[in-house]
Design a protein that fits this description.
Elements: H1 2-16, H2 21-33, H3 37-44, H4 48-56, H5 78-87, H6 93-102, H7 109-125, E1 138-150, E2 155-165, E3 171-176, H8 181-195, E4 201-204, E5 211-213, E6 222-223, H9 225-234, E7 237-240, H10 257-264, E8 267-268, H11 271-287, H12 297-304, E9 320-325, E10 331-334, E11 337-340, E12 349-354, E13 358-362, E14 368-373, H13 377-382, E15 385-388, H14 398-410, E16 416-419, H15 444-450
Parallel strand pairs: 1-4, 1-8, 4-7, 11-15, 15-16
Antiparallel strand pairs: 1-2, 2-3, 5-6, 9-12, 10-11, 12-13, 13-14
Helix pairs in contact: 3-4, 6-7
Length: about 450
């Protein structure tokens, strides 16, 4: 009885085994020599029935010898792990293990890490489809940050903006003030003006000013309402790439990498010099033959511009408005520059409206109390305050203070930039023309236009 049970158990284990090409070759070789299934089985430690089965096979078994595939504690979690890797192929195994522990996982870290490494290798081997864009169809827009080195030893972290037309590879590069939605709108609008039209769609890498929620493999993403309105105004559709999946753009070029590498490899005199060099470089690239299209971007743009949509007659109002409290010395701060406000508003809240080129200061009821032209980068280096004398005319010491300010302006020194008319002296008629006290002879008409 024991022998029967032992034999049955042995046969069960035997059937659980799987034999491959090695065993098949050994059986084939020995069947010619011995011809006895039992003897061969004893020699190879294989059941005689298995020897017979292998000897009758014309071709080797498809699977190599080994045991049956074993189940793993991780099996029930693999679907969830796969979805996390789909969303972010760079996710760390430690992060995934933390997530799994919340779901009840109590296995080893090495098991998790081994599976994740295998899945990531599979993902990286998947081929991507490259496509070429029809003329006027699409432009890719990106923000990037990079550190600039200046000749005086200073370093500055700047934000770069780039728009690239898909068909022609025509590029527009700008230095951005920040990565806000208003600034992105301003730069996109400026690019449309330079191109003379609007492409059918803009492609983004899930930029925060555009997407309230990023696009993933399982979620189409959510575009912000304000950006949606901006797109409707200009007639373009917004497309989001799958988060952390640059290959979904359909092009192999990483459009910001050459630009960032150029900045890292060079030293510039100042930011204005950097702007000029970026403009020069962009113009050179437009004339250079592209390795893929075998034409220069300038040549292909002559074709593409005919397919761009026309600009709208009224441009989008993308000015940012916020509330600020007027300081005791009659200033509100905008981008680290103080702008003067009439003294009667000291301690009160005012609305500050910041546009692309202008700054307006209004009462909470909407009445404009001051308007200014934004300072240039060179002016920001010299001046920390922009002042109008009439804002202080009812305060003691006003005339003396502004007399000194003007003398400093004449010497091209700061920190106060005086704008507006000079006050008339008592008993004497002032013959100073409008704008006589403005630095660089800037006309008051500039400030009047900013209020429009």
């Amino acid at each position: 009885m024991k022998k029967v049970i032992k034999k049955a158990f042995s046969n069960e284990k035997e059937e659980a085994k799987m034999y491959g090409e090695t065993e098949w070759l050994q059986v084939k070789r020995q069947i010619e020599e011995k011809g006895n299934y039992s003897e061969i089985g004893r020699a190879l430690s294989i059941d005689r029935r298995t020897v017979k089965r292998l000897s009758l096979m014309k071709d080797p078994p498809p699977l190599k010898g080994g045991r049956r595939k074993r189940s793993s504690k991780l099996d029930r979690y693999k679907g969830q792990i796969d979805s996390w890797i789909d969303e972010d192929i760079k996710i760390y195994a430690t992060n995934i293990e933390e997530k799994l522990e919340k779901l009840g996982w109590d296995g080893s870290y090495s098991t998790v890490k081994r599976y994740i490494r295998q899945k990531k290798e599979e993902k990286r081997k998947i081929a991507t489809v490259r496509f070429e864009t029809l003329p006027g169809k699409q432009a890719q827009v990106d923000f990037a940050e990079e550190t600039v080195r200046y000749a005086d030893g200073r370093k500055e972290r700047i934000v770069l903006f780039q728009m690239t037309l898909g068909f022609s590879r025509m590029k527009i590069v700008e230095i951005s003030e920040d990565m806000s939605r208003g600034e992105l709108m301003r730069l996109v609008e400026k690019s449309f003006k330079e191109l003379g039209g609007v492409p059918e769609e803009l492609l983004f890498d899930n930029l925060k000013p555009v997407a309230d929620k990023a696009r993933t493999v399982r979620y189409k993403g959510k575009i912000s309402e304000e950006w949606e309105r901006f797109g409707i105004k200009y007639g373009f559709k917004t497309e989001l790439c799958i988060a952390r999946r640059a290959q979904t753009k359909g092009k192999v070029e990483r459009i910001m990498d050459p630009l960032k590498a150029y900045i890292r490899a060079n030293i510039f005199l100042d930011k204005e010099h950097l702007r000029k060099e970026l403009k020069r470089r962009a113009e050179e690239e437009r004339q250079r033959v592209h390795s893929t299209t075998r034409q220069s971007p300038a040549e292909r743009f002559e074709i593409e511009k005919k397919f761009l949509k026309p600009l709208p007659s009224n441009l989008y109002n993308f000015a940012k408005t916020r509330k600020e409290k007027v300081s005791r010395d009659c200033f509100v701060s905008v981008e680290q520059i103080g702008y003067s406000v009439p003294s009667k508003y000291v301690g009160s809240k005012v609305a500050v409206k910041v546009g692309a080129e202008s700054i307006q200061i209004l009462t909470t009821e909407g009445l404009i109390v001051a308007s200014y032209k934004k300072l240039t980068e060179e002016e920001k280096k010299k001046y920390k305050y922009v002042v109008t004398q009439k804002h202080y005319e009812d305060l003691p010491g006003c005339a003396r203070a502004f007399s000194d300010f003007r003398e400093l302006n004449k010497m091209n020194l700061g920190p106060f930039l005086v704008v507006g008319h000079a006050l008339k002296k008592r008993g004497k008629k002032s013959h100073a023309p409008a704008g006589a006290w403005l630095v660089e002879k800037r006309s008051l008409d500039v400030y009047a236009e900013a209020a429009q």
